[in-house]
Amino acid sequence: MFDPSDDWFRATAGPTGGRLKIGLLGGSFNPAHDGHRYISEQALKRLRLDQVWWLVSPQNPLKAREGMASHAERMASARAVARHPRIRVSDIESRLGVAHTAEVLARLQQRHPRCRFVWLMGADNLATIHRWRNWRQIFMRVPIAVFARPSYDSRALAGLAATRFQAARLPERKASSLANRVPPAWVFLAIRRHPASATAIRARRDDPAS
């Protein structure tokens, strides 16, 4: 049971009980960086969302534990970078004890039936989402917004997931209606590419010459 005094819990209900439109950005945030905030700000604007929640994963099943900072360190990193009144950092995956996106979405929808959730991800994740557990359920459960990422776009849009759900793709000009769509529904947003990369940040941090 969540503590009702927790800021994150209170954020799930509007002042009049209205349906909040909430973008969900999941990831390791190892570390969080300006690219995460940039995508979130674009999502708030282009998708007309009320909030974006950063879901900091305790441990991505597809990523090695080596080089992974502690969950507490990554939560602190996310809070330091978010710096936006409509971006909230959550440890919901740790609280629920789940590690797979399809299950996280199911639990969130069960607990917050009046919220409209949209899954946010970069083109790099669209290119590999077919490796995620029950990935088709993700498309069938919530609308999805995919953001352009350097060097991944063409491969992602020609990949298994994009091909499988091609008929559900919205034109970019209709992105503002995505949160109100019945899934499957997804859109590719050709935003200006942000150069930030957690991998590059870690490499620079670990390089004694940098």
Strand arrangement within the widest β-sheet reads 3-2-1-4-5-7-6
Note the gap between the termini. 45 Å
- Say how many strands there are: 7
In CATH terms, the superfamily is HUPs
Task: Work out the strand percent.
Answer: 15-25%
Shape: globular
> Helix amount, in percent?
25-40%
Give me the number of helical elements: 10
Low-pLDDT runs: 1-9, 200-204
**CATH topology call:** Rossmann fold
Number of domains: 1
CATH class: Alpha Beta
Which structural class should the secondary elements be placed in? Answer: alpha/beta
Q: What CATH architecture do you see?
A: 3-Layer(aba) Sandwich
Main sheet properties: 7 strands, parallel
Average pLDDT across residues?
Answer: 85
Based on CA atoms alone, the radius of gyration comes out at: 17 Å
The topology string of helices and strands comes to HEHEHEHHEHHEHHEEH
